[in-house]
Amino acid sequence: MRSSGFEVVLFPYSSLVEAFASIGINAAFDEGTPDADFKRTIRKIEALTNQQKASLKQHLIHSNQKLLDRFFKELQSILDRKVDRVIVIPLHGHQSEFTSIKGAVSFIRGYDEVAPQHGVFREYEVIVRYSNGDKIEAVFKDKQQTLGFLNYVSGTETV
Predict the structure, then answer these.
(1) Whole-model pTM?
(2) Which of 35, 53, 79 is the last residue of a domain?
């Protein structure tokens, strides 16, 4: 999921089994567990009182606190990130750098792809660098796709 841009928390199986054991439920299952045992355990889970649910939640949080802290730190980093700079490289021309999406959009809108002094236009390379160190690199064959990408990554900026 990380490769698709999602940050996740994966609790170890043992911490789940221990949390349920703390409220009297054996949740240790494997491929050989009979369906009847599984169904019986599901009924016990569905019948938990609010106090048992709260205890289960606290046990899971406590036993996985380091994982949760790391997750929320990563989440905060992503939520706080801002565009630091946008680099647009028309393949037949020179590199142009901007400190905002708006500047990059203005450049692309005014860029002459067929100007004879630049040679044959091939593609736009776009590099977006964020304040938290993240970087997105993309290559587009035309102006419309490039503008669409910049609109997508703009977040709250108006382009």
Answers:
(1) 0.54
(2) 79
Name the domain boundary from 79, 109, 135: 79
Residue 159 lies in a domain: no
- Sheet of 135-140: strand order equals 96-98, 83-90, 124-130, 135-140
Q: Do the Cβ atoms of 131 and 84 come closer than 8 Å?
A: yes
In angstroms, the Cα distances linking 73 to 78, 81, 112, 127, 135 are 9, 12, 43, 25, 18
Greatest alpha-carbon span in the chain: 78
Query: How confident is the model over 13-53, as pLDDT tens digits?
Result: 999 999 999 999 999 998 899 999 989 999 999 999 999 99
